[in-house]
## 1
Amino acid sequence: MAKEDNTKAHELAKKQRDIGVAEFFSRNRHLLGFDNKRKALMTTIKEAVDNSLDACEEAGILPEIIVDVVDMGNDRFRVTIEDNGPGIVKAQIPKIFAKLLYGSKFHTMKQSRGQQGIGISASVMYAQLTTGRAAKITSKIHPNKPANYYELHVNTQQNKPEILKEEEKEWKKERGTKIEVDLEASYIGGSQSIDEYLKETAITNPHVTIIYTNPKAEQIIFPRATENVPKEAKEIKPHPHGVEMGMMIKLLKDTDSRTLQSFLTTEFSRVGGGTAKEICKNGALLPNTKPREMSRDMTEKLMEGIKKTKLINPPTDCISPIGEELLEKGLRKEINAEFYAAVTRPPSVYRGNPFVIEAGVAYGGDQNSEGTIRVMRFANRVPLLFQQGACATTKSIMGTGWRAYGLSQSQNSLPVGPCSIVVHIASVWVPFTSESKEAIAHYPEIIKEIKLALQECGRRLASYVRKRRKIADESKKRSYIETYIPYVGAALKELLSLKAADEEKISSMLNTILEKQRGTLEKIGVDNPDYDEDLAKIGKKEEEVIEDGEEN
C-alpha cells in the first residue's frame, strides 16, 4: 500500500511545473480587461494612449495623438495609435511591447498613468491570441536618424519577446512611436465605448490634441484647451507609514546603510536625524544597530516605534493634479452646459501614499434632465469606464445629499437631473480593485476627500440653481405685470385726457417703477448674504458628519 502511494506521489510530482506570468495572463485575460470583444478594443486603445501621454509629458512635449480604428469585417479590427513623443531606444522596443511586467514605473514613487508594466504588452498578447498576427512597432528618437521597425510576438511560456522582423526605415515624423495591432473585437457606441474614453481623456488632459478616426471612417478632433504641459511629478522615497512588515524586512536586508538611524533617514521621506532617533527610542532600539542584523522581533519593534512617532505627511510634489481652472476648461470644451464648477482638495494621505482629489460639475444645457446624472471617474487623468458600481467614487456620490443642492435623489442611489459629475484622484499609487484598473478601492481616507470635494461643488451648484429658480419665478411675475402696463397707460390717458405721446410716456414710467421696485433680472439672487451663510453652515455640518463617521 505504501509503495502504491509513493508511486502516485512521484507521478503527481512529475506534473508540477512553473507557470509563466504571460502564460497565466493568457489564460486569465479577463483580469487585464480583455473579458469581452467590446472591452478588448477599448482596453487596447486605452493602454496605448496612456503610454503616449506619459511619454510626452515626461519629455515636456505637448501631445498630439492619432487614433485610427479600421473595421476589417468578421469582428476583426486594425488599431493604430501614433504619437509625437520622444520615441523609444531600439533595445527597449521588444521588451516594452512584448514582455509582461516590464516597465519603469512600478518601483517609482510618483504619479503616472501606467504602474504595472502589463498594459500594452497584454494588448499585443491578446491580438496575437485572437488573430495570430504580430504587432507592428515603429519608433524614432531623433530627426536625423531612421526609425526602428519591429514585428513582435509574445512568447507566453517564457514571457519574452519573439522578433519576427527587424529593420530601419524612413519615417516623415521627427520623433515618436506608432503601434499597429489586429485583434478580435467589436465596436459599439455609448458610455463604455472608445469614443467616450477619448472624449473623457480630452476633459482631464486639456493639453492634448487627439485626432480620432472611428470604424465608420468618421474623423473627430479633440483640440487642446491649453498650451501648457502639466507640472512634472517628482519621484519621492516611501513614507514610513506606508511600509508593511514584509517590505520593511526586505529594505533592512537590502540597504547599504550601516546604522538603523542612517537607514531611516536615507530610505524614507520625511525622516530626519531627530525623527529617526525618536523612532528608535519609541521602538526601544539603539540608533547604531546594524540594519542587516535586525531580527524579525526587532523589526516589529521598529514598526511599533514608527506608529508611536508623529511624522510629517509625505511631500506632494510627486503628484500633478489638473487644477480647478484647467478642469473647468476641459468641462467647458467637451460638455455643453449652463453652469460649471471645479474644486481641487488639499493633499491627503492613505497608507503613506499622498493623493489629491478633484471634482467638477457641469449643470444644465443639452444634458438629459430625466435620467440619472452622468458620472465620470478618473485616476491619474485616465477615464475609468467599467465597474462603476464597485468604485469608491460612485459610493461617495451616492452617499452625498444632493437634494440640498437642487438635484432629485432617492436613498442610496445616484441623483437625477441635467448634470455631469467628474471625480479625479491623483496619486503615486492608485489603489485599484483589480489588475484591469477599472475601479478605486474603498479606502476611508479617499471616500472622505471625495465627499468633501463633491460637497464644495454642490454648494456652488445650489447657489446657481437657487438664482436660476428665483429668476424664473421673477420673470413669471413680471410677465403678469408687464401684460397690464399698456392697459393701465390707456386708462390713465382716458381719465386724464392725455395725448397719445403721454400714453407712451406713462408706459415707460411704469416700466421704470417696476425695475426700481423689483430690481433688474441680472441682480436677482446674486447677492444674498443670508443664503450664502446658510450654505456655509450646511458645509460645516457636512464636514462634521464625515469626521464623526471617520472616528466611528
## 2
Amino acid sequence: MGLKEELKREIRNVKNDAAKEVDKYWAIDFEGHKIEIHNKMMEETLLVDGQVIDQHTRQSMWSHLMPYSTLSGTFQTADGHVHKIHVKIGGFVRLNITVKVDRQVILKEAVTLEFLPWSHKEKILPYLEKQVQQHGRILYTDLPDEEYLFDENHPKLAPGLSDRLLADVVTPFYTKKLIKYFMEQVEKPTNQTRKATYEKIQEELVISYFHELVELFVQQEKDEQRVQQEALWLLENAAHREVMKFAMVILGCTNCEAYKDRLQSIALHEEFTGVALFALKNGTRHANDYIWQLAQKVKGWGKIEAVNFLEPETEEIRYWFLTEGTKNDILNSYSSVVCAEKGRLDVALHEPGISNELFIGTTEIIAGLLSEDGHMPIDEYEYAGQVLMRYAYHAKTHCQELKDFYMLARIADYMDEEEETWEARYENTWKPHERRIAGEAIQEIAADPKWLQEALAILHSEEKDQLQALAIAKFYKADIKDVLFNKLKKEPNRLEYHLALLEMEDKEVTEALVAFTDRFVSLDELTDEEKATVIVLLEALGDLEGTGLAFIEKCLRSVDVNVQGFALSAISGQEKAAWYKPEMVEALKYVSDRSMDKENRQLAKSLL
C-alpha cells in the first residue's frame, strides 16, 4: 500500500464526512403549501408541494469557495396568486439559510457545522451489544467503519488480523501527545477536546504503541472516575475501531470491574478480543474465569488471543489446552507452543496410557510444532525430545489410521538430519536416548506393510488429497516416479507432485521436469499455479550445476520479475564455468538493461 493510495482514501473519507455534515433539510408550511429546501455537498434544491422550483448543481467541491448559493422561483396558491420565493443558503463555519416569500422572511436560521468525526456514523458498541443481546454471540462480523477502511487498494482483513501484522513504528512522541490530548479531554470534556483525541487516535494503529501507552499512562496523576467517564464516552461513541481499542486500553489501566459485562460482550468480536481481554485481565477480578468462557466461544484470531491470555489454573483448563486449544479457523500451528507449555504436554504424555482424545490433540500440537508457519519452531520448545519420544510410544497403541502414521512419517523426516544439527539439539531440547527410543518406536510401527500399501493405493487412485500418501511413500523410499509423472500428464500444475519429484534429488528426474516445461508457450503470462512450478524447479536447478541452462535462459528473458529473480539465483551460486555460455550472457545483458526490477538489474550486472 503506497502513500498515494493512502492519500486517496483519506481524501475520499473527508469528502464523505463533509457531505454528511452539510446534508441538511428544512420544511416550512406557507398558507397550506409545503416548502422544502435540501442542502447537499454538490447541490441545493428548492421544492414546493413536491415540485422542483429551482436547483443548483455544483461541478466541483472547489465551488464552495463561493460560500453562498441562491435559489428562486414562483409558485401559485389556490386563490390564483403567484408568489415569488427566494432562498439564500451557505457559509463556512455555520450554514446560514434565509427564505423569503414576496420579500417576507419566513425562515432565518444558522446551523453550526462541526464536522465531528463520530457524527453521522453508526456507533460500533451498540451494534455489537445488540447482536449479543439477540443472539448471545456476534452473528455479523462486518463492522460499521469498513467503508472508511477498505477499498480496491486496501483489502478487507479477517477480524483481528490487522493487529497481528507487523505494525509501523509510530511517530516519535506520538504516544505522549495522544495522552496529553486525552488528559485535556478528561479535564475539560467538550466536543473540541474529544475531537482532538478522537482524530489523534485515528493516526496510528493502537497495537503499534500499546505497550508504550500502558507504561506512560499509569504514570499519570489522574482522577480515575473522570478518566473512566471519558474512556466510556469514547467507547460508546466510537464509530471507528481504533478508538474503541484505545478506550479499552485506558479502561484496562483502571479498576474496570463495573464494566466487565460490556467488555465480555465486546470480546466476542474477534477484532477486539485481544484488547478487551487485556482490559479484563488488568482491570478486573477473577478475569481468568471470563477468559476461559470466551476461549470456548471464539474461533479465529480471537481464540488465538484467548489462548495467550488464559492461565491453566485448573486441570480442566490444562486438558482443554491439549485437546482443544490449537483448534481455530486460522491456522492451528499458531497456538501449538502455548498449548504444549500451558497444558504441560510433557507431563501428560509420561502417563503409561492416555485417552484417544489426548492422542488426537497431541497430534495437532505436534503438527504445529513441526510447521514452518508456527511462531516458535520445535527446536525451541524445551521438551521437544520428551514429547516426541513419548508420542511415538503412545502411537503403538493409538496409531490406527493412515493419518496417524503420517504424523510419524513427519517426525521421522524431522529427525532425519545431519549429526551437526543433532549436536545443537542435544545442547538445547533433546537427549540422545530420546532420539533413539523415538526412532525405534517409529520403525516398530512402520514394520507393518499396510501403511505403504494404503499410501500406494491412494497414489494410484483419483483421490484429490494425496499429501499424506506422498509423505509416507517418501518415508519408505518407494519408487513412485512413474506414478507421479503419469499424474502430471492429467494435472500438470499440481505443485505437490513437482515437489515430491524434486525431493528425490535425482538429476534425471529434474531433467525430465525441465523437459516438461515445454508445455509453456510463454513464460510471460503464467498463472499462479504455473509460476509456482517454475519457481520450485529453478530453486532445484541451483543445486545442479550446468543442468537446465536453456530453461534458465528462457526464464531470464521473461517479463515476470519474480521468475527473472529466481533464474538469476539459480546460476548465482554455481561456478561460472558451468553456465557461462554466449546465450546466457545475452540473456543476462537483457536483464541488466531492461528488467523492471532494480535488484535483478544489479545482480545480472554482477554476474557478467
## 3
Amino acid sequence: MAAAVECARDANGVAVLRASGELGGAFGPEMLDALEACVEQCLSDDRTIGVVLAAGASGFFGELDLEWLQGMASRPQGELLTFVERAAALAARIDASPKPFAAAISADAKGVGLELALACHRRIGAAGAGYAVGFTDLRYGLPPMLGTAARLSAQMGPDAASKLLRDATALTPAAALKAGLIHELQPPAAVLEEATRWIEVAASQRPQKVADAAISAMLLPSRTGDTALATREFVSAATGPLAQDMVRTLGLSVANANRLASRPAGVPARSFRRVGVLGAGLMGSGIALVCARAGMQVTLVDMSEEAAQRGLAALAKQEASGVAAGRLDAIESQATLARIRPTSRYEELYGVDIVVEAVFEDREVKARATRQAEAAAGPHALFATNTSTLPITGLAEASQRPAQFIGLHFFSPVPRMPLLEIIRGQQTTDETLAHAMDFARAIAKTPIVVHDARGFYTTRVVMAYQAEAFDMLAQGVDPAVIEAGGVAAGMPVPPLALSDAVALDLIHQINLQTARDLGAAYTFTPGYAMVGRMVEDEGRKGKKSGQGFYDHAADGSKSFWPRLRDFASPTLRIGMSVADARDRLLAAQALETVRCLEEGVITDPSQCDVGAILGWGFAPWTGGPLSWIDRMGVREFVRRCDELVERCGSTRLEPSGTLRRLAEEGGSVYGASWPPA
C-alpha cells in the first residue's frame, strides 16, 4: 500500500502536507513513516519557511488505525511502544520546531489527528463545514498518546485541559473554537489561504536563531518525561482487554455497520431527496430534523395544521438553543428548518422517496396512517414504521405493499442517538432492506438489522433490565440499592428512574397488550404485577405525572415515594449488596441478548454489542453485553449466574443450554455460530 502524504511548497516557501489516498483515513505505521519523512524534509530544507498540515478528503491525517491496533495485541508489546514513541517524538518535533506549523482543519480532526493539530502553533478551522473535532479515542478506553496532556495543559491550564481530556465528545467547529482547540474559524474556501498567510507572518516575526533552538531544547526535558509516561500508559491501555473490546465494538464493528457490511448484495444503491414523516411529536419531529440536516426535503404531517406547526416550532426552539450554545451554525440551522414543510394534508406526500410513520404506539392508529400515506405517496415509496415493540409483520397487514414495508426503530432524542434498529418483516424484500440501510447511511445513523419479534432486540433487552429491577423491588430489596446497582453497572440511568422517565402507564399498557396477544402463554411476573397495581390503584404513572417510583418535584428534584418499599413488598425484606444488584442487572441484559441470538432475532454478536452501547447505553467499558461475557469467560459467567439464581430465585438469570455447552467446551460467544444448529 502506498503511503500517501503529499508535500507541496509554494513560491514563498510555505510547505503544505496533506494525507490522501488509501491512508487518508487511518493513522498507522505507514502514515507515520510518510509524515515523519515529509516533516524532516521540510525542517532540513532551507527553502521552507514553515509548514501547514492540511486536512484531506478523509479527515485531518485520519484517526488511529483500529484494525492494526487490535492486531498489535498479539505482537510483542515493544513494537507498539516503539510506534507510539516515534509518533510522540514527531509531535514534539513539530511543537518545538523553530519553523512555524499551522493546522488547516476543514474535515474531521479526531483522536490522534487532533493531537497532531494540537502540536501545531496555530489551528485554523473551517466555519460551519460539517466536521467534528474531539478526543474520540477516549471512547475506546485509549488515552492521548502524543504527549498531548502536558501540551494542552501548557496551552490552556491544567483545569481546562483536564476537562477536555476526559470528554470523548466530537465537537462542532464552533464548540471547538469556544473550547480553545481551534484558534480561529474562516470560510471553508479561505482556510488554507489563511493558514499559509499566518505561516508567512509568523516566519517573518520569528527568525530562526540558534538561541530559539536552545530555548526549545530547554523546554523539552520536562515534556519528554511526561511524554514517556504517556506513551507507556497508552501502550498498556491499548493492549489490555478493556480497550481491545471497546476498539472492536465502538471502532471496528461500528465502522462495519456504517459501511453497510451486511447490506444485501446486488441491489443498486438508492438516494433519498424527499421524505414524508407522519407525526409531529417528539419522535416524528426529531426524525424530520435529522432528515433535513442531511439535505432532504421533508413533509411533516400531523392531524391538524396547528399540531404540525407546533412540531416545527419546537424544532426551531431546539435549534436556536444549539446556535446560542455554539453547537450549531446559525446559517446551516436556518437552512435545515427551511427544508421542513408542516401540513395536515396527506396529499402533499406524493412523490416522496420514503414515508416514516411515527404516530402513537397503537395498531389501529398506525394502520389508518399507513393506508392514508400509501395512497398519497405513490407506488415507489418505501414505507417505514417507527415502533419499539409492535411486530412489523402484523403492522404490515395494513399495507398494500408489504414487500416495501419495514421497521425503523429510532431512539430518543433522535438528533443525538446514533443507532437505527432496522426490523425486517416476514414479507420485506432484500431490496427494501438494502434501501432502508441506504437511508440510514444518508441520515448518518449506525444501522443494525434484526428479524421481526416482539420487542425486537433493543427494547426486549432494555425491558429485561427494567423487569429485573421490578422483581428485585417486589422481593423486598431496598430501592436505593437497586438504583446504586444500576449506577455501578455503568448504565446512564438507573432502572427505576429510567422506568419513571419512560412512563409506568406505558410500560403497563405494553404489558397488557403482550398478555392479550400471548394469552395463556403469558404470566405476569411479580414485578410487572406490582407496576400494574401502582398505575391502576395508585395512579402513579411516572415522571410525566410527577408520581412514579419517585416523587418528582417541579424543580427537577426527586425522592423515592415514601410508601414504595411497603407497597412493593409488604412482608419481605431482602438484604442485597450493591455488587449483587449490579451483577443481576448486567446479567439480565446479557442473558436476554444471548436469547435473541439463540432465537435468530439477531445473528451477529458484533451488532448486538453495537446496538447495546449505541442504543440504550450499555456500559461502554464492557464492549457490550457479549464482550462482557467473553471477557469474564463463559464458564465464570455461568457460575456467577447460577450463584445469583440460587441466592435470589430469579428465573431470568438462568443460563441457557447453549451457554452451558459453551462453558463446558471452553468456548466463547463471539466464537460460536448463531443461531446454534
